[in-house]
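Can anyone check this?
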Amino acid sequence: MLTSRILPSTFVKNLVLACAAALLFTGCDFLEVEPKQSISSDQALATEQNVRAALNGAYNDFSDIDLYGGQYMMSPDLLADNGDVQWVGTFASPAEIIRKNIQTNNAFVETQWTDAYETINVANNVLSALDQIEDPDERERIEGEARFIRGALYFELVRLFAQPWNSGDPASNPGVPLILDPTRDITEDDNVTRNSVQEVYDRVITDLDSARILLPESNGALADTYVASAFLSRVHLMQGNSQAAAEAANRVLQSDQFELAPTFADAFNNVEDIPEYVFAIQVSSQDGGNDLNTFYAASADGGRGDINIQSQHLNRYDSTDARGDFFYIDPETGDTRTRKWQDDESDGANIPVVRLAEMYLTRAEANLRAGSSVGAPPVDDVNAIRTRAGLDSVSTVTVDDVLRQRRLEFAFEGNLLHDLKRTERSVGDLSFDAEELVYPIPQRECDANPEITQNPGYTSC
């Protein structure tokens, strides 16, 4: 069975916690039934208020430090590293990841799996209770948000725990199990096999495209139609569907709801969202966590100083590139650290998951590859990023130019491994589809589910 799927008592406990966190916005109305652990999930989702609270709980889980609160960015970057950074921390799990010698009981990998499936189950519970929402517009919005959460997480799972789309046959390569209904009782019937990579991608696109249609143009800090489009641009780019990637990115760029920050430095360490943020995880002194700050920042900035930036990375920047100056020397150790995750504000800083800069470079690359002209010419999109960084404009660009800008612009933001895989570039001596660059299925899952299979290169389940 998927051990990360939530038992009824656990789901209700999480719903109670979500309700407590959401009292300022919604309020909750629970049945007075004792003991609390025996309340069924059907009862817990029997009111509109509680469905809303469950959705808030899904967002809270979605932003957990093991997911988009940091690890979906940091861990893949460590796996993709080939000398740009050095891990000097005492945690064994990140050390295994950067060495490309991941054990099946790796705690960081396990929580990226289990927390994702727990959050997916909460989203599935919300989707199962949509008939509790009376207002049809609200029902559509809530469905869209739940579908976005589920689709985004399945996208992360399939590209971390399975071979990339462009390796072999995605229709036969094992992906991850697709669970689309709420899990409320665990039996042997819940032992599931892995769906194919193609099946998972198909579901991701279905969920995100549905979310794009259902969600409004503006939804505060929560997912809206443009957030769904931004994630779709990533999915299509991973699949090599350049035309669709360009169109998805273009929807965001032509929305007139976003703009690049005036300087590169302005795009980071913001306690409130800025117009460059298409989607960001909300962090404050009262709620949320930022694992990127924890591991990248110096102790003076609330971090552990576990990741040192090496000269190999610093040498990638031209002398006039402002991004090459966005580093500092740790006053305690003398090591170089990125300023991207330097939260020196007591209120915490939000984590940009998708910045508008990505949409410019996605549209440019996709148009170049497809020979299309969706939106602006690729050279204009690239120059928007170059000039903001203090570089001269260019008159022509190639795909390689775009990929270079992506590496410099999004360093330490979680894109590197996926960019290398989709473009079939190696990580040192390892091919883009090497066994070492795919996470193992966690041992905890193998022990509980006899139907699941392990990835090649790891001890069989």
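Reply from J.R.: I decoded it. The chain is about 45% helix and 5% strand.
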